[in-house]
């Protein structure tokens, strides 16, 4: 079965085409600047030069049509025709309390996703545009949605409720939801495989450190707590997000700077974090380079960033009464040896003993970066959210009564 995985943004769209029998990526790419007359489609196939096309793509329906044309292109394509796509899986950021697992799309699912627009106004409407665009271009192909929040629906109330009037939770569902759940699901399973231990016997702290960053306490294979909250703003310091702060700062800043609520929201989400403290960039690579060149603001940003990760790790060790492994994943977590070193140097109380040579190694496979004598293992486990979306979509379609009947008749 070939599964097309779509991650749709407001003006962009990423895609991966998987052959699920081998779990191999046949092609991948992205469409950028949707809505403009100079949109860019980038298409990649293994062992072939990257193909780049600039054209007018004014909406997501056209973007999906362009992707399908590229996948079936005589020279650059990997499929004979679009009927070779048997299923489409979508990443959707917010599933609220409505979804605790991946589901096939029907009218009721689309309605629920629309109801959640208020909780994820920047993401869910864009995901819905992707879903509708696929529906127009591939009307008979089953679609599934995999939610970033679903994995965290196992959190107990003491973890997900805020200490605010309960009526706000009952009426408006104001609570911690957590994000990066697709990544946590994949990485926790890969970690258990690497450690050769059953998931239900493990206490893991996973640090998903990218431009958006979070930590999660995974107890016996289930999310017990996570740093992001009702929105992705809470928790760790990030590339452009502030992370945790005193909520009184919001009305105080509005009053002192004569800002609107929207302006403060934009400041906290797009103009804070590494970018604000360093004054240079939201990119950890540029922060490290500037720090190593003696830039004091970059050094402070780096130290604040690592310190907050370390604080959450300590909190989650206490929350779970122990930990079996600490795991780094995502772009920064997988690639910044200097950040991992900075975090681990403050965890010696827990018995962490970093092996600096192992820490410097780059690999696409899970690896341990602590010494043989370290009392606590620290791992780097590359994430693969697209593969997990493809797997969930494949299983959902495979388990449909019609699919089962079709297979039995072959």
Automatic annotation (TrEMBL):
Which residues are listed for Mg(2+) binding in this entry? 7, 385
Active-site annotation: 148
Cite the SUPFAM superfamilies for this sequence. Answer: Actin-like ATPase domain
Pfam families named in the record: Acetate_kinase (PF00871)
Where does the record place a coiled coil? none
Uppermost EC category: transferase
Q: How is the cofactor bound?
A: Mg(2+). Can also accept Mn(2+).
- In the record, what terms sit under GO molecular function? acetate kinase activity; ATP binding; magnesium ion binding
InterPro entries the record matches:
Ac/propionate_kinase, Aliphatic_acid_kin_short-chain, Aliphatic_acid_kinase_CS, ATPase_NBD
Catalysed reaction, written as an equation: acetate + ATP = acetyl phosphate + ADP
Q: Name the positions where ATP binds.
A: 14, 208-212, 283-285, 331-335
For the site Transition state stabilizer, which positions are given?
A: 180, 241
Entry keywords, A to Z: ATP-binding, Cytoplasm, Kinase, Magnesium, Metal-binding, Nucleotide-binding, Transferase
Q: Which Gene3D superfamilies does its entry note?
A: 3.30.420.40
Q: In which pathway does it act?
A: Metabolic intermediate biosynthesis; acetyl-CoA biosynthesis; acetyl-CoA from acetate: step 1/2
Q: Which cofactor does it need?
A: Mg(2+); Mn(2+)
Enzyme Commission number: 2.7.2.1
Similarity-based family: Belongs to the acetokinase family.
Function according to Swiss-Prot or TrEMBL: Catalyzes the formation of acetyl phosphate from acetate and ATP. Can also catalyze the reverse reaction.
Write down what this protein is called.
Answer: Acetate kinase
Name of the gene this protein is made from: ackA
């Amino acid at each position: 079965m070939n599964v097309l995985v779509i991650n749709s943004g407001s003006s962009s769209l990423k895609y991966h085409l998987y052959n699920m029998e081998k779990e191999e990526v046949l092609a991948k790419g992205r469409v950028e600047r949707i809505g403009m007359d100079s949109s860019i489609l980038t298409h990649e196939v293994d062992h072939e030069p990257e193909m780049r096309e600039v054209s007018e793509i004014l909406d997501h329906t056209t973007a999906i049509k362009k992707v399908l044309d590229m996948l079936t292109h005589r020279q650059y394509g990997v499929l004979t025709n679009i009927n070779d796509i048997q299923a489409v899986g979508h990443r959707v950021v917010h599933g609220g309390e409505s979804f605790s697992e991946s589901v096939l799309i029907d009218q009721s699912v689309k309605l629920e996703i629309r109801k959640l627009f208020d909780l994820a106004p920047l993401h869910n409407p864009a995901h819905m545009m992707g879903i509708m665009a696929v529906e127009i271009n591939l009307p008979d192909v089953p679609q599934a949605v995999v939610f970033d929040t679903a994995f965290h629906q196992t959190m107990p109330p003491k973890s997900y409720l805020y200490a605010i009037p309960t009526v706000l939770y009952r009426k408006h569902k104001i609570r911690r939801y957590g994000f990066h759940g697709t990544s946590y699901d994949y990485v926790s399973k890969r970690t258990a495989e690497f450690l050769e231990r059953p998931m239900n016997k493990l206490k893991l702290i996973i640090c998903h450190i990218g431009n958006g960053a979070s930590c999660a306490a995974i107890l016996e294979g289930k999310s017990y707590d996570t740093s992001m909250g009702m929105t992705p703003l809470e928790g760790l310091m990030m590339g452009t997000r502030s992370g945790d702060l005193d909520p009184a700062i919001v009305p105080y800043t509005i009053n002192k700077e004569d800002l609107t609520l929207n302006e403060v929201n934009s400041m906290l989400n797009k103009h804070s974090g590494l970018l604000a403290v360093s004054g240079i960039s939201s990119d950890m690579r540029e922060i490290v380079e500037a720090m190593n060149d003696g830039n004091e603001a970059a050094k402070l940003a780096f130290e604040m960033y690592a310190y907050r990760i370390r604080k959450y790790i300590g909190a989650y060790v206490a929350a779970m009464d122990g930990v079996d492994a600490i795991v780094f994943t995502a772009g920064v977590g997988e690639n910044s040896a200097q950040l991992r070193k900075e975090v681990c140097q403050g965890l010696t109380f827990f018995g962490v003993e970093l092996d600096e040579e192992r820490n410097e190694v780059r690999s696409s496979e899970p690896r341990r970066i602590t010494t043989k004598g370290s009392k606590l293992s620290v791992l780097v486990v590359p994430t693969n959210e697209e593969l997990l979306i493809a797997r969930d979509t494949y299983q959902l379609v495979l388990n449909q009564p019609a699919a089962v009947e079709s297979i039995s008749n072959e």
